[in-house]
């Protein structure tokens, strides 16, 4: 089965693009959502997280204490790298198990913001990078995330792999820049993927 990754920085519009593929009956794996699920449900990972970040990592009800964890890692690159190193291997395993369940699909899609940083690209046959210029991303994010300032958003973007590097490394680019129509770009790639064979 062909495995296609889709990535892009915050505000480029990965979600709307993956929804279009989902409408075409393509199974979509959302790495961010599944990572949260794995952090809640994988007992080995829960123990690793508690050992790394202390008993406050989970609430008294057993829920992941996301505000606490975010406060610990967000401004500490080494702690953030440690978190990713703990979580990403379990997400990779979860993805492989999910792929095995998609027996009748001609191809599957994995959406991940950290496709290259997590090395998830190594599981993929091809990668799509979704691109939008900075001014468009800022406008979208200021409308969507009303609790964030422009400085907050720029700080988040600065911590991510540059869009230029993502575009350079991807096999396909979808331009979500409010100037080009999305649907024809998605349909063109969908047609291509239906005829593709996975790498051996």
TrEMBL record:
Keywords: ATP-binding, Coenzyme A biosynthesis, Cytoplasm, Kinase, Nucleotide-binding, Transferase
Pathway membership, UniProt: Cofactor biosynthesis; coenzyme A biosynthesis; CoA from (R)-pantothenate: step 5/5
Binding annotation for ATP: 11-16
Compartment(s): Cytoplasm
Top-level enzyme category: transferase
Primary localization: cytoplasm
A GO cellular-component term linked to this record: cytoplasm
Entry similarity comment: Belongs to the CoaE family.
Role summary: Catalyzes the phosphorylation of the 3'-hydroxyl group of dephosphocoenzyme A to form coenzyme A.
The protein, known as: Dephospho-CoA kinase
Origin species: Pontibacter oryzae
Gene: coaE
